[in-house]
Design a protein that fits this description.
Layout: H1 8-12, H2 20-42, H3 58-100, H4 106-130, H5 145-151, H6 157-174, H7 180-205, H8 210-235, H9 239-260, H10 273-288
Helix pairs in contact: 2-8, 2-9, 3-4, 3-7, 3-9, 3-10, 4-6, 4-10, 6-7, 8-9
Length: 303
Amino acid sequence: MAVEKISWSKMAFQMKGSVISSIYPRVFWCGFFGVVISLLYYFKLPVSQPILGNVIPSIVLGLLLVFRTNTAYDRFWEGRKAWGSIVNTVRNLARQIWVSIDEFSPEDREHKVAALRLLVAFAVTTKLHLREEKITSELEELIPTSKYIKLQTMNHPPLEVAFWIGDYLQQQYDRKCLNSYQLTSLQELLNNLVDNLGSCERILRTPMPLAYAIHLKQLLLLYCCLLPFQMVETLGWWTGLIVSLISFTLFGIEAIGLEIENPFGYDANDLPLDAICNTMKRNIDDLISLPPNVRSHPDNITN
């Protein structure tokens, strides 16, 4: 997912991010089977059956593969949109908290900073939740020790962090640091964070229907096994190579769909969630360095 300029030829032979490593065993065996059929044809056995080309029309298999890839990419793009919305919502929520909430005591700024770091903690816990990983030390610098220990016992850490943020907002409203309109606006942004978390969970928990995945694999295998019988009379000893090339194309398209349908992992084709979370942390650190809104306690203006 790194954005960099790579020459066309270099990218064509790049292994990182490609699906070659996952499909080459199948491609090899299909090519080997083609060589076997060529050998049988050489010994005058009746293996040439061009009529087998009508068993599975190429257009049918092509449409199935296109549908598979498009569906997987829709999941990938929906995940990216959800995380883009999380980034924008965190920025808006942090900005409004920093500007809108009044400070009546020197401790109020510390509470604001803690609330802003909770927003980053929400993104980090969402990342870990989607990867089905336990709470890591990445959160230690974002939340107090008591909350860090508490998160380690929770089944759904992002929801707990969202609760803490909402609790902070309600406390500020009760202390008259927020009016009802500001509280409503901030709560809507917080709800948007939870909605995007739900969108990511929907992608994660709703894989491609098993029956469709199985049927597509069966058709691919059958099609590639029938190819040598169709081509051997025309291609002869070249049958194995051509079958390998065709199977490389078909298996590669199917593998791409499998690669991107769950975009929350560590693969080169997955979303760069670590970089996204680090970006949010830098944004919050920059915001904290700015003078906050102070109306009732001028001693707080220390920046």
